[in-house]
Amino acid sequence: MKISTAVSSNSKNKGYIFHHLAFNVSHFPKWEKALFAQLRIQVNNQGRNKIFDSKRIDTYSGMENPLDLLKSKLFNPSKELFTLNVSKVFQKALETETKQLHLAISAPEAFIDLLTLDDGTPEGPQLLVLSQTIEKQTNDEDHILGRMRRTLLEKVPDFLDSPESQELASWGRRQRRSEDEDEEAEEQSNYIVEELGRIRKGKLKRKKNPCRRKPMHVNFAAINYDQWIIAPPSYEAFECTGKCSFPMSAHLAPTKHAIIQTLMHSLEPKQVARACCVPIKLAPISILYVDDDGTVTYKYDYEDMVVAECGCR
């Protein structure tokens, strides 16, 4: 999770510039545990003729004098990024009533111009926070799911009017008709229904298209999610496809209802639908995304994004 600065200001003392930073950490989710927090400041050394030796940069916490020194470190300005571990003071800021993290950077006056300290730009100082979910979110707390729904509503109208959508819908109708015809022929050859609803097996042909997991590669740009998901650009989500036919294999973990529904489908295939081949176990992925407040957030284990197992329900 990246948190941009809310306030920044300068003060001068004995040839050193103190640049004060204030981060608003109130948006950090209450169901997350901060594992690591890092201050990141871009270094702008392009087009600079003057070569600097490594200089000492002091980082302080607090907003009242005397400030608490966090760390003094030598920094080579040829690098593109100044970073500092601020995990402890970040955690303390979360526990305060104001939810403000105050830091100060002290560096030589001639050197501090190399640091991109303007909080009004995307390249300004930021906090990078690595967190872990410690409790299950409710739907109203799941900002990512809400963002997905809004993107879907924005994307669907345009897609439905496109030639690609019309062609896909026509193909889908033909495909469903073909599958329905194949299924009806399979039902007639697989079972002979006798009086009183008893079933005896006729000449069984090999079951086609059993319930299984198959690859489904998701490209976020193709579904407009790249507007707010930064990384990964794509991932393997998998999908469940195929039919739940009787007898169902144990690895499909059918529920009692799915077994009964499958038997009823065998008796009355036109009145009772098959049990559905659906995901029964899902796995998380890690994503870097932009939330509603424009904050870049890293989610280590965003749940329910990958199909791990398929079954009959």
Automatic annotation (TrEMBL):
Residues 163-189 are annotated as: Disordered. Residues 198-313 form the TGF-beta family profile domain. GO terms for cellular component: extracellular space. GO terms for molecular function: cytokine activity; growth factor activity. Coiled coil: none annotated. It is found in: Secreted. It comes from the Eukaryota. InterPro entries: Cystine-knot_cytokine, TGF-b_C, TGF-beta-rel, TGFb_CS. It holds the Pfam family TGF_beta. Keywords: Disulfide bond, Glycoprotein, Growth factor, Secreted, Signal. Belongs to the TGF-beta family. This is Bone morphogenetic protein 10. The gene is BMP10.
